[in-house]
Amino acid sequence: MPVRYIYSLSWGFQQISTLAGNQTPSVFVVEVLFTMFITAMGLLLFSFLIGNIQRFLQARGSRSFENSLRGSDIEQWMSHRRLPDDLKAKIRESERYNWLATRGLNELMLLENLPEDLQRDIRRHLFKFDKSLPIVALMDESILDAIRERMKHKTYIEGSRVLVRGGLMDKMVYIVQGKLESSSEDENVVPLSEGDVCGAELITLCLEHYVLNRDGDKFRIPAGKLVSKRTVRCLTNVEAFTLRAADLENVFSLYSGLLIQNSLVQGAITKESLYPKSLFRSRSY
């Protein structure tokens, strides 16, 4: 009975598998058991492969489904607002590039679920703008971590204008991928690419504000200084991280004590500032 059962089980494995299907049964039970073991392992590994492929397709399908739903909502919204065709085309291109850049993944939510020290290490790896801005490199690491924490992911399509000459300079942009050009009134064009920063004047302006205001006097940044003197236009699709002026002011207000005590930062502000140096000396401790 054991031999008959083993041969019957071996025949059953051959029927449900393509492995060892063309072999003639052996007269030795050990060889039959070995063939059954190989066939069973092949079926097991094949089932694992099918399961992994199924999970992969389901994950891709769910994200594609979410993207299609979002696209349908945007199309309905554009039709409801009766937007012109050229504006609709730009919105579709922006959504398409944003999907390609993020793959439907919410990076902010992903970082929030990680431990704080790991979040800090990731942001330090992503944002290395302190190497290109000398005044930022002089700040304490805690201030830089606070600045990195408030930076938001942003995408721009080809032809978009990040800053406009004569407009409000309300953000600083750290370029991750893409090419831009910055042009001034005298047609001086400066190319920008990965690792560059535009709108870095905000840092100097905010530092001036808090150094001059550290004794409690009411001091406001002149409106003329917040006006952009250059136009920054995207030559290609651009992926970047932006930092709003309000967030930057909030960081400097929280760490004003460290900024005031840092003589190197004060020296850099005095060197780059448009305010008279005597005004800084009159307010120094």
Automatic annotation (TrEMBL):
Biological process according to GO: monoatomic ion transmembrane transport
Record flagged with keyword Ion transport: yes
Keyword Cell membrane: no
GO cellular component terms, semicolon-separated: membrane
UniProt keyword terms in alphabetical order: Ion channel, Ion transport, Ligand-gated ion channel, Transport
PANTHER family linked: CYCLIC NUCLEOTIDE-GATED ION CHANNEL 15-RELATED-RELATED, CYCLIC NUCLEOTIDE-GATED ION CHANNEL 20, CHLOROPLASTIC-RELATED
Listed name of the protein: Uncharacterized protein
Organism whose genome encodes this protein: Daucus carota subsp. sativus (Carrot)
